[in-house]
Design brief:
Radius of gyration: 25 Å
Bound molecules: glutamine
Structural class: alpha/beta
Largest sheet: 9 strands, mixed
Strand content: 15-25%
Strand order of the largest sheet: 13-12-14-15-23-22-21-18-19
Amino acid sequence: MAKHIFVTGGVVSSLGKGLTSASIGMLLEQRGLRVRMQKLDPYINVDPGTMSPYQHGEVYVLDDGSETDLDLGHYERFTNSPLTRDCNYTTGQIYLSVIEKERRGEFLGKTVQVIPHITNEIKGVIRRLADGDVDVVITEIGGTVGDIESLPFLEAIRQFSQDVGKENCLYIHLTLVPYLKAAGELKTKPTQHSVGLLRQIGIQPDILVCRTERSISREDREKIALFCNVPLEAVIEEKDKDFSIYEVPLSLVDNHLDQLIVKRLGLAAGTLDLRDWRDLLHRLRNPEHELSIAVVGKYAEHFDAYKSIYEALDHAGIHHRAQLRVARIQSEEIEREGPMRLLSGYDGILVPGGFGERGIEGKVDAIRFARQRGIPFLGICLGMQCAVIEFGRNVVGLAHAHSTEFDKDTPYPLICLLDEQRKITDKGGTMRRGSQPCVLQPGSRAAACYGRERIEERHRHRYEFNNVFRQQFAAHGLVVAGTSPDRALVEVIELPDHPWFVAVQFHPEFKSKPTKAHPLFAGFVGAAIERHSTRGERIQPVEST
Ligand code: GLN
């Protein structure tokens, strides 16, 4: 029977619950256990697919096409746990399902209530992950203890240990131990209050993971242990990591968290094998190259909007032992100031995916700049569509060419809705989504990166390259390097006359891992390193992370 770990958070949001949960999953996997991971989000949207990246960060897409919370990206980058639509539920989905059952008369005339109907539904989705060959299910509860909308989830996980037995459940609570400058000390009271709130609703956490800027003294740990009713060994320090998020699992190991979990749950775990992780940190700490990449997007100032892109760039950096400086450049700024001032000096330019017209012309300008100056370029989804528009306008000579997403009356609809999508009018859940096969052209740059010709990548878009223009583009030197197996949909374009110009309709960033960089990102960063070494000059990025 599978064991269950529940991860809750208190005091403030953004404590890194997703990262901590992913780290725990990774450590248990590296001890030979089969882990499944799940996030339950208290917000009412049915999924994050319709939420603005400003509000919620990127929408993370799984193989099965489900649009999920970005924490699932951490799960996938840190673990090998298979992720499906069962791995992310929201209050909206839970209620929707209960209301649909009510409409079908499944509750036999009973009054439908939060307890037991909503809580039963929640317990059902947790149990679903425990089916099959699995040793541990890790369920992260979104939000912060004390939020009104978290209550049904907390009540459900409280009941869960009554259902499956206390010995099969472990509650880990992530809190903040802030440092107060004026007092010159760490404060444990917020943690005490947060645990107090949990205990009021019947959950006694087994382990406290305490986020902190400074090391917590034994005295403070003893205080937390006493007031929060946990043994001293279960007060785990998780100190801020300035260097890399990939240090988090190792610091949890230093504080014996994996041992504690294994002991408490009586898991038949092997010894910990962290060779890959230590190797990646060694690579990060000992770079042999240095380069800078400009990411030109709509939400430049919002880090989480392109979370997986930045992660995938980091992974490619780790792969090449390169220290990457990534500048986030807002495409609207390029419209105002021109690419020359904002993009000069970068070794590579990446234009990510997106929706909406704002900043489109800036992206097109950035791509022109990359194409004309031989700067390595990677275009992703909308980034590929903009590359097609740029090439159509400036190389093929199709004035006012556009995507019908932005200009319905363009004389040259290079990007448009295909017939099957045209029929669909609803906004939510109407896109071409999830893993799709793609066939690469032998000898293409993309095929060289992947080292094979048949690949599967994740999609999330409505618009496509308009096949009417395929021949004309080919005549001007644009190569269609990848298509759907029936050749109907253009998935990859390349410019062979350019040092490295590849654009893809799918989202490779979702399949990159710190221990295994994505082939296209590795290819792109490799080309950027080459450019940097041949230029041999140092640059000062406008803004860097
Ligand atoms: N807006 C474009 C489309 O719907 C691109 C989507 C994306 O970049 N994810 O096709």
